[in-house]
Fold each of these.
Amino acid sequence: MRLTRYFMPVLRENPAEAQIVSHRLMLRAGMIKQNAAGIYSWLPLGFRVLRRIEAIVHEEQQRAGHIPMLMPTVQPADLWRESGRYDDYGEEMLRITDRQGRDMLYGPTNEEMISDIFRSHVGSYKDLPLTLYHIQWKFRDEMRPRFGVMRGREFYMKDGYNFDLTKEDALHAYNRHLVSYLRTYERMGLQAIPMRADGGPIGGDYTHEFLVLAETGESEVFYDSMVTDLTFGDRDIDYDDVAQCRSILEEFTNLYARTDETHDVAVFEGVPEERRRSARGIEVGQIFYFGTKYSEPMGATVQGPDGKSVPVHMGSHGIGVSRLLGAIIEASHDDKGIIWPEGVTPFHCGIVNLKQGDNDADAACEALYAALTAEGLDPLYDDRDERAGGKFATMDLIGLPWRITVGPRGLKNGVVELTSRRTGESEELTPDEAVKKVAGIYGGHGGTKHVEMMKQRAFHTYI
Ligand code: 5CA
């Protein structure tokens, strides 16, 4: 993409309405535009990151054997009357009446609808286990929408639902989700710690929230500092292996880590004092096992091996896809702007032309652009007629992990400069070497750990 042909309305001034850094940077980088309290348009740069995050979620869900689909945003109230949640859900639910006077609602979550789909089409235990998921807009009429996409009223969520014959099978589905979430967040460059939580309006005895530690987080959390040393890394996972999934769950949840809802001072005091931490965290996902809470009232049953009809054991599992943009920025920025992890960056690399209109500089930039594109990468070429300082400030603000700077002086010596946004370190390389190095980082030329992240097929090929 050439910047002169793009739509990236960068703001010079700090927007007064933004209280936290991620909101401020998303507005300044021209990623989002607020249309009403807690309701945003995703401008092109923001939309790119949203799609990249979504693509990782799709990949990891399907790796775990979960099946994508899409349910509507608007739901009939009658389904929610069946589960009893129509009255319980309260003011957070956006209620709508259609022209026939029928009660509808903008879905805050989909347990009822998926149970209805299940009961219409599945009748035998032989069709289990089954996990269906979608990534869809949700609406919760939050009392205090704030912090930009972190607490929106309209937000984008991955929600998945498992259907199993027994509690034991459903707990395997729970563990499988936990493992797949650990991988998902790590690919986005995040450490999200599973913490024991409370079921809230979804319900259930088993539930963990995934929290990214950040001062601006809305949740208060308590944990053993050793949990922050755990990393998932590049393990081989067999998602059908019950023992393996359970042992990973144990590894990541045995140490003390709880939100304030379930915090237990007496148990916490069992953690050696020097390892006890209390902090703030951003909740980027939550998993639940709630047994037959929905399947029983809604008649989501199957015929078991003995011929008897039994309600299925269910759980639901959510990832805050749009909230993740805010969480990643909170975890990865400096005073100049965003620093995107390679896994989610909107463009792989920036090209800065220090002297637009200079024949050699222009030609070198065009050649770099073509070579990077041929490697399957998406460069953003700043081809504006602007001074170098302004171009650098824009690149730093929007946070692309790598920048190639091209100027007449370097070109005389046959070199360009490759700069890491994270470390600020630069090296002089020939244009060829620079392309090879960037392609290598993202998985070309023999590859690195980013191979899987970056060799992503187009979004529509995931499903
Ligand atoms: N049905 C279950 C699991 S699918 C469910 O709705 N879980 S949830 O309420 O925990 O939401 C899942 C995730 O959505 C949360 O962990 C959070 O990351 C995100 N989320 C929830 N409310 C908002 C909001 N108002 N704005 C942005 N993200 C939100």
Note: The chain has two domains: 3-338, 349-459.
Amino acid sequence: MSRGSAARPVSPAPRLPSRLATLRAEPGWRRIDLISDLHLSPDMPATLARLRAHLSATPADAIFLLGDIFEAWIGDDARWQAGTFEQFALELLRGVSARKPLFFMHGNRDFALGEPMAEDAGMRLLPDPARLEAFGRGWLLSHGDQLCLGDVGYLRARAAVRRPGVLAALRAMPLFARRALARHLRAKSRMHQSDPSTWADVDDDAARAWLRDAGCDTLIHGHTHRPALHDLGDGLARAVLSDWDYDHGPGRGDVLVMDARGLHRIAPMHAAAPDPHAGGGSP
Ligand code: MN
């Protein structure tokens, strides 16, 4: 498989964990929604509203959030601060998990979201990658960043930032300082917005190796913001989730729906319209 310029350095492919987390769909599940890369922040109210609308309208039996749902997660303690974005996120997720199973996998942006927040929100944290058995097939779920082997600098930074000492140091900062830091990083990243088509992509050889080792036929991931379904040969495939943005431009985002027929992509649903025949009726 070509990786573009042969001279470009690439990181070694990560090995599939020897004890791969495996999740079995419940027999009654008829539809699963998979979503990633909303990059939610206090600056993205329309995107947050669209997620809320979809989650309240979808008939899915389970929801999988596959990373970078949040642009940054400044710490689980932020959820107690009244009137904040984090408290709103907690209420939203709690409302969903009260009705159906909700799973959360970390992305590279929201990896600091911890067990206390997950537990409070009623969602189950999934390791990356994780295997899902559903509708008679094995699916491999990942955020995807670990497989972008051409992104050497990023992968090095990824390992550094996830050292326990770094997280502990961040958590020791006062909340107002973490909020200010997140604001600063958001402003900086807006200034240096690069074109996603120039980003490193998931390495197809590494994806195939993971799929074979996991005994799965399809890898589902986000991170690259390049929604597609790639045929990897030998019955293997790679399904890529889209990012969401309803705050700038015409709005984009999609949901990958898994059911007995396979995978298909839909636009996020709008909140269900009130039934005109319900209640008191109209004159
Ligand atoms: Mn990402």
Note: The first strand starts at residue 21 and ends at 24.
